[in-house]
Amino acid sequence: MRMWLVDPRLMCRRHLLGEHVELHMLAGCLRRGKSIDGYLQGLVDPALIACRHEQLVREMNNRGFSHRSPLDAPECPQPAASISPERNLAELRRRCPDCASIAAPPAEC
Fold first, then answer.
1. In this predicted model, what pLDDT tens digit does every residue of 31-67 receive, in sequence order?
2. Could you count the other beta carbons within 10 Å of the beta carbon of residue 91?
3. How far apart are CA 6 and CA 93, in angstroms?
4. Counting C-beta atoms within 10 Å of the first and last residue's C-beta, which end of the chain has fewer, N or C?
5. Cβ of 6: how many Cβ atoms within 10 Å?
6. How buried is residue 108: exposed, middle or buried, by Cβ count under 10 Å (0-12/13-18/19+)?
7. Are 69 and 53 in contact (CB under 8 A)?
8. By the 8 A CB rule, do 92 and 16 touch?
9. Per-residue pLDDT reduced to its tens digit, 78-105
10. Roughly what angle, to the nearest 10 degrees, separates helices 13-31 and 49-62?
11. Phi/psi of residue 37, nearest 5 degrees
12. Cα end-to-end distance, the chain, whole Å
């Protein structure tokens, strides 16, 4: 499981939908009381599940995808993890030619 926390507009279809699925998996693990300790080292931040899900859904809708999986994010007592969106974007672009080919959108005011 991984939360890229990269601007969703910079993600290819596969990574956008993949992170969406992994958020649902992460929420399910937390609801079932499973340990996610191994993922707290810069891979996931349980406190950001709901917000990140909304960001991804907004981009999915912008791309014309049909979103039908609302997320019931559990309360997360785990401490926030340190995730670097800048390093993750560099990693995505290194791994994925589709992500690398997406131009950065104009800055928002």
1. 898 988 888 888 998 889 999 999 999 999 999 999 9
2. 15
3. 11
4. C
5. 23
6. exposed
7. no
8. no
9. 666 688 999 999 999 999 999 999 988 7
10. 150
11. -55, -40
12. 32
The predicted structure's pLDDT at residue 105:
75
pLDDT for 76 equals 66
CB 67 within 8 A of CB 45: no
Name which of 5, 107, 11, 25 is nearest 65 in CA terms: 11
Q: Would you kindly state where each structural domain of the chain is located, as residue ranges? A: 8-98
Interatomic CA distance for residues 53 and 73, integer angstroms: 9
The HSE-up count of residue 37 (CA atoms within 13 Å, CB side) is 1
- Residue-wise DSSP of 48-89: GHHHHHHHHHHHHHHTT--------PPP--SPPP---HHHHH
Q: Which residue has the tokens 């990269």?
A: 6
d(CA 29, CA 94): 29
Query: Taking a C-beta distance cutoff of 8 angstroms, is the pair 79, 40 a contact?
Result: yes
